[in-house]
Amino acid sequence: MADAPGAILVAGQWRQGRGPVIETVDPATGEVITTLRGARADDVDLAAEQAARAASDVEWRDMLPHQRARLLATAADLIERDAERLARLQTRDTGKTLVETRALVGSAAGTFRFYAAALETASSELTPARGPHLAMSVYEPIGVVGAITPWNSPIASDAQKVAPALAGGNAVLLKPAEVTPLVSLALGELLLEAGFPAGLISVLPGAGRVVGEAIVRHPRVGKVSFTGGTDTGRLIGRLAADKVMPVTTELGGKSPTIVCADADLDHAVAGVLYGIFSSTGQSCIAGSRIFVHRDVKGEFVDRLVRAATSLRVGPGTDAATQVGPLATFAHRDRVVALVDRAREEGARVLCGGEVADDPALARGAYYLPTLLAGLPNDSKTCQEEIFGPVGVLLPFDDVDDLVEQANDTVYGLACGIWTRDYRQAWSLARRIEAGTVWVNTYKQFSIATPFSGMKASGIGTEKGRDGIRAYQRQKSVYFGLNDEPLPWARV
Ligand code: NAD
Question: Domains in the chain and their CATH numbers?
């Protein structure tokens, strides 16, 4: 990439894209970081054809698991070697704080290392025979898979798809969001350096409607793993259904976080604050609906508002910053409009509710941490994802009513529960429709723990040892052990 600035990665070759120019902008300052020509449908076609050839090449197809694992482990080493460069690049491109981007880069390296280990230790199954045969189930690569990712945590969400896809023996067409392509291109460069056969790796930034759809529709692509908005996920699901192609979709959320009457309020305030305002709220699992038991509502809300007001808003490169800018100016304007709509719906703004007025932040896409109250759970503000630093407080008295309200959403991604009563925690954790529940903590992850959404938050699972299986096809093989010909044919 260093030799071909502004290039995209097409089956291991750096080329100028044939699509429109993409201008990547630092949202902390409004400065243009770089411009590049994105991909076009014919770039996707070239990448997919070459990927199919690379995926079926015997050298890759017959590579033994421990040899493929070595490539994944080398990729992890290289990501760690370049960790600071990657973190700074991602902070410039997305506005995220360096603390976060360092963690995301670490997570990406950990993901490659985890799938190296998972691959080496994965086994096929010998299934119990019900006759004179030996039956087994084996897993094979799909061939070419598409990985389509959003702009909020690029390198970690890229790794979450690319590492298990390569471990599964596939070629990958990675399509990062057009507004934040830089760290994904840098990841592609490191995968080539790690020694993966070049044709396996493509990084194709560009408009979702053009490049993303071309990947989903391409006849060579046998699976798509998508992370992004629910509307886009629905569209991709429809396109995939036409091809009878499997898809994994990790989509939006409007997650409830529940503060019970007996909660340790020190923990609850810190956890709820982190759950909604870290990553400037641009997180699918943000705890954006904050249900508080009426007995502790007064004290909890006072403390939460005080804490939210004192969060340090600033550029991601400043070590003191807790809340960076939104990833783009367009997204910041969208958050402004959604908070205006909340006011029209009758929301009381407890704090924030406006762009930062600090002159030092005037050039960036900043928005103040915002808490709203006074809206019913069925308001648009409580039902639609804002994907910004905006939480809504909702009081509750009765646990059954709480469960009904918490589940009364199209989404089912995550849930937080703050209580000292573990029986209550267990009961609530089982009753709330969410793929992940945190009790007395929030937004903690391990690559070893499966992640998925319920309802409109997605289909399929990522992470965990079985993550590789999402990028493979299962095949059963029977070996006959009969001493005689099959009896049916006996005459
Ligand atoms: P988005 O759906 O607009 O875009 C996501 C990706 O899909 C981008 O690369 C985009 O270019 C591409 N895309 C857009 N239209 C497409 C199409 N028609 N065909 C194929 N690809 C297309 O989402 P976004 O605004 O980039 O990201 C924010 C959303 O992502 C939020 O809803 C958030 O909740 C969700 N998200 C979910 C998870 C999760 O794991 N569940 C994680 C992070 C973000």
Answer: 8-251+457-477 (3.40.605.10), 256-439 (3.40.309.10)
Q: Which spans in 122-147 are helix H?
A: none
What pLDDT is attached to residue 5?
A: 63
The residue contributing the CA closest to ligand 1 atom 43 is 284
Residue type for 387, please? Answer: F
Q: Has 382 been annotated as catalytic?
A: no
- Residue 200 phi/psi, 5° resolution? -75, -20
Q: Which ligand 1 atom sits nearest the alpha carbon of residue 458?
A: 41
Start-to-end C-alpha separation, the chain: 70
Q: Which residues line ligand 1 (CB under 6 A)?
A: 148-152, 175-178, 208-209, 212-213, 216, 227-229, 232, 235-236, 250-253, 284, 385, 387, 413, 453, 458
140 is catalytic: no
Instruction: Compute the distance from residue 445 Cα to the ligand 1 centre, in Å.
Output: 20
How much is the average pLDDT of 296-304?
98
161, 232, 280: residue to mutate for ligand 1 pocket, most atoms within 8 A of CB: 232
| pLDDT attached to residue 6 | 85
Going by alpha carbons, the residue nearest to atom 39 of ligand 1 is 250
pTM (two decimals): 0.97
Reference 436, options 427, 425, 445; nearest CA is: 445
pLDDT digits (tens, 9 = 90+) for 148-182: 999 999 999 999 999 999 999 999 999 999 999 99
